[in-house]
Amino acid sequence: GELSPDVEAAIKASWEPIVGNDFLVVVAQLAKFKEAGGLGISLEGTVDVENGVEVRPHHYIRSILPDGPVGLNGRLKSSDELLEVNGKLLLGLNHVSVVDILKDLPQNVRLVCARRKVPLPDSFTQPDMQIPATSPYLAGIDLRTCSIEKLIK
């Protein structure tokens, strides 16, 4: 169904104190083409590394298929960080768990993402990709990109 303004405002209000003033909270309500279909996005996972231990994983949209469900919705962009899907927290989960959750979604999907208000000066791997070199809103020491990239489709 449609995303009501009250529900969107409540979701944004719950996330804004967590992500901070440098980020917008973006909510996208969409429908997959079929129950077992995908979202038409690929992900990039990052983690902070402290004392050799991976902590604070983050999951960014690396690319969006223009004719996929997310692309046709038009609200999300490459480099948005996935925070929540259908009320399930994604922030802090490992990349494999997030991919499994995204592959097992029902037809109607609500994605909540964080988007940097001011893009970073240097791009990550693509001109339109602005994944931060440090953890955006949870302090970290070192950031290492996971080699796992999954196409959710």
TrEMBL record:
CDD domains: PDZ4_MUPP1-like
Domain called PDZ: residue spans: 27-117
InterPro entries cross-referenced by the UniProt entry: PDZ, PDZ_scaffold, PDZ_sf
Pfam families, alphabetized: PDZ
Protein name: PDZ domain-containing protein
The species this protein was found in: Candidula unifasciata
Lineage: Eukaryota, Metazoa, Spiralia, Lophotrochozoa, Mollusca
